[in-house]
What we know:
alpha+beta
Amino acid sequence: MNPAAFSLKHKTTTTVLTVVLFLGGLSSFLNMSRLEDPEFTIKDALVVTPYPGASAQEVEQEVTDEIETAIQQLGQLDEIESRSERGLSIVTVSIKDSYDAATLPQVWDELRRKVGDAQAQLPPGTQESMVIDDYGDVFGVYMVLYGEEYSYAELKEVADYLKRELLLVQDVARIELHGYRTEAIFIEPKREILSQIGISSEQIGQSLIQKNLAIDTGRVRMGKEFITIDPTGEINRIEDFEDLAISYSGRQFYLKDIADVHRGYVDPQDDIITYDGMPGIALGISTISGGNVVRMGEAIDQRLDEIRSELPLGMEIGIVSHQATSVVKAIDGFTASLIQALVIVVGVLLLFMGVRSGLLIGFILLLTIIGSFLFLQPMGVALERISLGALIIALGMLVDNAIVVIDGMLNGIKRGKTREQAAIDTVRQSALPLLGATLIAIFAFAAIGTTDNAAGEFCRSLFYVICTSLLLSWVTAVTVTPLLAVIVLKGPKVDMGSKDTPSPDLFNNRFYRVYKSILQGLIHFRWITVTVVGLLFFASLWGFGYVKQAFFPPSTRAQYMVDLWLPQGAHIEETQAHVNELESWLKEQDGIQHVTSVLGRGALRFILTYAPEMANPAYAQLLIDVDDAKHIPEFINSTEAFIHENLPDATGYGTKFELGPGEKGKIQARFLGSDPNELRRLASSAQEIFESHSNTKSVRTDWRQRVKLLRPQLAEDRASLLGIGKTELAYAIRQAFEGQSVGVYREGDLLLPIIIRATERERNDFGQLESIHIWSPVAQRRVPLSQVISGTEIVFEDEILMRLNRKPTITVYADPIEGTASALFEELRPQIEALELPSGYELVWYGEYKNSNDANEALAAGIPFFFLLMVLTTITLFNSLRQPLVIWMCVPLSIIGVTVGLLTTGQPFTFMALLGVISLSGMLIKNAIVMIDELNAQVGRGKALYQAIVDSAASRLLPVAMAASTTALGMIPLLFDDFFAAMAVTIVFGLLFATILTTLVLPVFYSILFRVKPTTA
């Protein structure tokens, strides 16, 4: 049944459904989840295995290799990367793109089983492997608790209180703390006294190790009761340690007589966080899956306001990142852009279609947008950058169907038809072609909707929004639009029923006469026309080679990062000294609002596109809030200049945050081979090439520098006579300098390690190494270390070793100072690839090059199928081969406008711009179908083919031009958005140029393929 006839016959039903669609969509809009950027699944997990005391090479060979071998059995595995450092193995497991958030938990369970099976193969002394599968969790609220006059213990107590309270807030999943210092009970034996009485540190440790353990002493029946027995003897105070009695050789000593006992912090601190120069403790708060980050953020703010009065005076909370605030700001900005685009589109409609028609189409557009939310919410689409941007992109296309219907009705009314008959006839002729054209436009975006990798997942809501809204626009165009048009549009001055009597003046004004004469001239000189168009096309292909290339643009977030590296092996206190100097300078700069510094590791993942750095005491990262994001490039340049001039021992560089999947180190050259020395030589050569380029910064390798290693030489013969081996030697040295944990002190919910170590004077003097006393079980006394070692040598070792897919690999990183990474990459690539690689070694490129290629390949994999659907749809619509060929011949013409637009504006060709090019095909085919459909209708009414070509082109000029102009002009707000700017330029210029050429060249192509000459008119 004709949809328009049904709507007109059932006016009440159509009206009620329209109201339900509008109100239901409005309700869904208000209840939709809100995000700053769309989510994508980080398909990585970490397998962390401590191996205390082992060198990086031993960790790699004995632990990492076994773990990798087990993990490699996973059929879901895409890539495996490992980092072996002294005492620790970290294996990063990357899963294939075909697995999503729903299927990954099962993969992680299988990973745990594989890793669990491998534990039996690990060497003695290895601790149990931990599988961290929440590596990709985002802590949307990231804050620092600090107070100038408060100790870490006092801050930790309040931080724990905040954690308990905020875990009760709606939608909060978990809260992580970091940056605090672990308290400990330190036992510092008096070396001289121990030597005199002959007691060993090990004996002191044995006396402490059983203290404060929770031991079940059972129960006893007493009459009718069953009573627990709990003897005293545990340590409840620091004073109890001092009064601990130690018996030796029939004599008894108190611990306070032979050692100093005090409470303090474990040194060195693993990681440090400061807020505006003041040490603090960071709290990261994540949202439950499917939760509303805005609602959670508002609830957290409310709860913090309620308990703020309970915080100690002078203790403050600094906000590093508050996603709820960012989301509200981002959504408000995009909503404003959507309203601006809507006003622009309606304004164009009013200007060219008249007040009644313009307002009518404007209402249908608003209904379609609001109604789309009714379907988008159940699909899990959130309000975020991509989905709202997709609505702006779709705005112009959403009015296309309604414009065709209204324009057809107006022409019918001008011919004397009643409004009802004009509506029924227009929908009868246009409904199927419009549906086919709509489907083709949807197919053009479909490849991104079916891409599984991070870039595709990031942009997936673009397809969902466009698919839903375009389908709904067709439904409203053939149902609601005819009904409202019958009510709103004026009827014919002379009612001629359904008689089809064309008005001679319908397309015969001056404008149309000029257009027709130009069109006839182009058809007459068809081969010249085709030649000129061909030259333009090939010139644009040549010009496209000069367009800058990029993956995703940087973020407009009013915050930037500074990564600071000291030489590998630096103490964290040395790192802190450098950070303090940089912080002091930053706080003096106008426009800098806050500085958060994280030392010894990266921050928690507070936004999805941020990748934390692995633990390293020689590393620090500063997160710097500025008053205006536009000034960030200037701040980065001045910060890097300060580091270069004032911190010569450090390497520091600033970067913006990423929009979309990406990473720091945009240019990454990876060398794979077996010999670490050869890998370092290749990396050194690549570093020299990178550093010699004037546009590179942050050049480094992931192996960092080799570090010093002090190696006391055990005198096996003497040591054996004294009953001393490597284990006893290592224990004595560790106890003397870093300390040895011998037990746990329980205090409420705190578990504090009990550590035996030397005094501060002895710990900080390596020259006293040989005077360290070590217990000899043979001599039953403490002997100087000099009796069991022959000397100490200094050697250098690789503290970090990396592998990729079980092959040793070293990566050289670089970033551009200005311009795009792809342009710099093309300049550096030939020089790096010219390096002579030994047999068995290879070079692979990672960074933006690989990320972009992976995204493009994944997108390209889906294009052939949907391209075929588009072709088959056009063939089905016209039951012809030549007419679809005419349509498809016009599609490549869009590249002319794309090249002109990108070169004119200086925008790079990004992944989003690529999506714009793909979507252009759907837009252009949709317009071409409208023209060919009208041509067939006029031929069907008996008009000569040549005249039908000219008249149909004139007849559809306004709808096609309107469709293109509304789409292009509606995108004006996106031209000022950094993320969508390249895509907007691509669509605006590509569509306008292609539409002009289509309205002029498509008839020429048609006349050539169908051998139509002007003489046949």
